[in-house]
Design a protein that fits this description.
The complex is a heterodimer. By secondary structure, chain A is an all-beta fold. Chain A has no helices and eleven strands. In chain B, strands 2, 4, 5, 6, 9, 10 and 11 form a seven-stranded mixed sheet that branches. Chain B has a four-stranded antiparallel sheet with strand order 1-3-8-7, with no helix packed on it. The chains are: A mainly beta, B mainly beta.
């Protein structure tokens, strides 16, 4: 199975900060990667698909990049509603695997 | 709007069985593959299984293979997860999720989740 790692595992930031989260795959996955945001007690929400395509309705401050084995999620200017845990997911092949998550909290 | 509503969760004993249901609305259910994803308390997300839009094939994580079976009834807009030989490691919130139309196998909409607790 493809292993996904994320860094950092957590970060503290302030409103207005630029935040970058990295996701790495144990083998090449083309651009078959998505990013999800999850708030406590809620189902995850798809932010980015195909590594860099913004899901409908997601604010443009979210962006994704990368291909192959290294990917990034960037929040250009952190907003109060963005404090959450972020997961990457590879959908290149089964079993589809998530990264362990990155928790973004208030500095 | 897309809605997915899971039900059937609860408490089961180790070695027991449960069947989860997921009723879909707001989209053409029979045109989309569906997934189950789970999250153990305080842990990360784990993909469980996928079933094709017409139910013709499915695949699952090694952790549930041979124990969990997906099925769907497109006439009822309903997805099922039959869980047998449950262990305490299966304790989790189970989400059904709809395959996204423009991605490989990603899922775009999720249900609210159904808690399964396996305990003696």
């Amino acid at each position: 199975a493809i292993q996904m790692t994320q860094s950092p595992s957590s970060l503290s930031a302030s409103v207005g900060d630029r935040v970058t989260i990295t996701c790495r795959a144990s083998q090449g996955i083309r651009n078959d990667l998505g990013w999800y945001q999850q708030k406590p007690g809620k189902a995850p929400k798809l932010l980015i698909y195909a590594a860099s395509r913004l899901q409908n309705g997601v604010p443009s401050r979210f962006s994704g990049s990368g291909s192959g084995t290294e990917f990034t999620l960037t929040i250009s200017s952190l907003q109060p509603e963005d404090f959450a845990t972020y997961y990457c997911l590879q959908d290149y092949n089964s079993p589809f695997t998530f990264g362990p998550g990155t928790k973004v909290d208030v500095k | 709007q897309v809605q997915l509503l899971e039900s059937g969760g609860g408490v089961a004993q180790p070695g027991g069985s449960l069947r989860l249901s997921c009723v879909a609305s707001g989209f053409n259910f029979s045109s989309y593959g569906m997934h189950w994803v789970r999250q153990a308390p305080g842990k990360g997300l784990e993909w469980v299984a996928f079933i094709r839009f017409d139910g013709s094939y499915q695949f699952s994580a090694d952790s549930v293979k041979g124990r969990f079976t997906l099925s769907r009834d497109n006439s009822k807009n309903t997805l099922y997860l039959q869980m047998n030989s449950l262990t305490t490691d299966d304790t989790a919130v189970y989400y059904c999720a709809k395959r996204a139309p423009r991605a490989s196998f990603l899922f775009d909409y999720w249900g609210q989740g159904s808690l399964v607790t396996v305990s003696s």
